[in-house]
Amino acid sequence: MKKKLFLQIAKELNEVLGITPLLFGSLGLEQRLGANLNADDIDVLIPEEYLDEKWDMLIEVMTTLGYSLYDVHEHAFKKDGVSAAFASIENLVPFAGVNITRIPVVDENGVRYYLLGLEDYLKVYTASSKDGYRRDTKNKNDTDKIELIKRALEK
Q1: What 3-state DSSP class applies to 43?
Q2: CA 95, 99, 103 angle in degrees (round to 5)?
Q3: Which pLDDT tens digit goes with each residue over 73-101?
């Protein structure tokens, strides 16, 4: 269900704002691994400008899709109990050393979005496991995901 909701969001972002979002977090890792990780939300990375000077445009797109803004600081929206939060794709560079110019594009029924490769997911979850908040609250989940990624890379 969350993947379907992401595709609806991505389609609107493609068509209305002309941007290709990145499916991030557990939902993106589920997609890359082809495994159910019980993602509890939708994490989307987009160009920084849509979180700053073009923020109103993003709010309009999400409102049109039936989402309500519930956390301005986290750029998070909610619809039917599902959270969709946005962050800057550019932050992948300093945070985890991901080369954002080499992220593969997926075209799913005409909806375009970026999806990290397993090597980049390993960089992201390794960096996340060192973050204070994530280390204290999500360490077990991050450690499990790192092990899943490593096993998938060995195959």
Answers
A1: strand
A2: 115
A3: 999 999 999 999 999 999 999 999 999 99
The CATH code belonging to domain 2-117 is 3.30.460.40
Distances (CA, A) of 14 to 78, 92, 99, 139, 154: 20, 21, 22, 34, 34
Output the pLDDT for position 138.
Answer: 52
CB 138, CB 145: distance < 8 Å: no
Cβ 125 vs Cβ 146: under 8 Å: yes
Please report which confidence band the pLDDT of residue 1 belongs to, taking 50, 70 and 90 as the band edges. confident
**pTM as predicted:** 0.92
Backbone angles phi, psi at 52, to 5 degrees: -120, -100
Domain locations along the chain: 2-117
